[in-house]
Amino acid sequence: MSSSNQLDKKSEAWSALFSEPMSELVKRYTASVSFDQRLWRADIAGSLAHAEMLTAQGIVGADDLEAIRRGMAQITEEIESGRFEWKLDLEDVHLNIEARLTQLVGDAGKRLHTGRSRNDQVATDVRLWLREEIDTLAPLLRRMQLALVEVAERHVETILPGFTHMQVAQPVSFAHHLLAYVEMFARDEERLADVRRRTNRLPLGAAALAGTSYPLDRERVARTLGFDGVCQNSLDAVSDRDFALEFASFASITMVHVSRLAEEIVLWMSQSFGFIDLADRYCTGSSIMPQKRNPDVAELARGKSGRVVGHLMGLLTLMKGQPLTYNKDNQEDKEPLFDTVDTLRDTLRIMAEMVGGIVVKAEAMELAALKGYATATDLADYLVKKGLPFRDAHEVVAHAVKSAIQQGVDLSELPLATLQGYHASIGEDVFEVLSLRGSLKARNLLGGTAPEQVRAQIARHRSRLD
Ligand code: ARG
Q1: Which H or E run contains 464?
Q2: Nearest CA, atom 11, ligand 1
């Protein structure tokens, strides 16, 4: 085998040690190029940083570096224009690019892999790639929060029945309800920033597993590639996929938040609630029932949370049985990671857009709150202020609610004399307490649903997000 096309002939045998070529089935089973070609930009960036360092350290000549740069520029151009020929025979993105480089620039291409292994190379590529993706996801998380804040701004005084156990509990500001989701997505944003910190460390220099005998300058490579630091243990560097687990975990939690919001949107839009409507462009029709307008986007967002959580489970399971250090199992980290990123990105985009266009049916919400005796707690609190122990007040109000239900009216519709029959201390001022707006206004403490508090929270989120 002539040395110049050795890499090209990987299909025939890996090295002189092998006496027969790989079976076709094994080749297809072990190859990753069909999906890991997505890492090509990171792979080239990593190779260039490595090559520059090799030259700075006197390990590879300046002319070789020049040739490597030239070759990589051409390869970049070929990939971008779709002319690059990805070969299954060359297994993965790393070998494909290296083989083409050698084809283009000869021996210089063969010097690139000095002091490096695909083990530290792939770990570097995935981290680089994920870091870039994280940096495009963070703004989408913020856009999602902003979309919610913008709707909230218009609905501080809109009253929604707050639920516990899916039963009407107490009236809340619709804005307050939306801001609960802003809190969730704000925590997701924090988590993402945290994942980024641990993703952004350089494995290169670990080589196959034990480090290398070449005098590499790992810190220099880290600086060139924008890493915050260098992995400190070579065995860990090539085998660690915590960053993937953490990212999938962040993504799963975020998708669970999206899914809960989606579920509420689906419920609110159903005829039984009738709290909101969605713009036609986010709905689909039915092929058989002409009256249908379905919230498919919300349903799919809810459904897609399943696949992201599934990827987290897949990645955890992928890692749990692996002895140190690199094992080919790790090749299985890519598809779930890629799909997690794609699913999360599309979901955040579409949900932010859809939430922004939500049509709020304020009267329907308010009516539902009125029907549910949502101010019963307020009456109990009123009695406590008049001196009753809370448990006794609770009991008094239960009787009042029972008779209101029998008469088919709201508490506020009971005549004062009737209310006084439940407790003599009840006065004319009870009606302000029994009103939905009075109930909201009363919850004027940090984190409460009073409009004053909600406005303060909106202002806080605004200054954080603008
Ligand atoms: N395609 C491989 C992966 O994704 C690259 C590393 C291969 N290393 C090895 N020693 N076979 O993990």
Answers
A1: helix 451-465
A2: 328
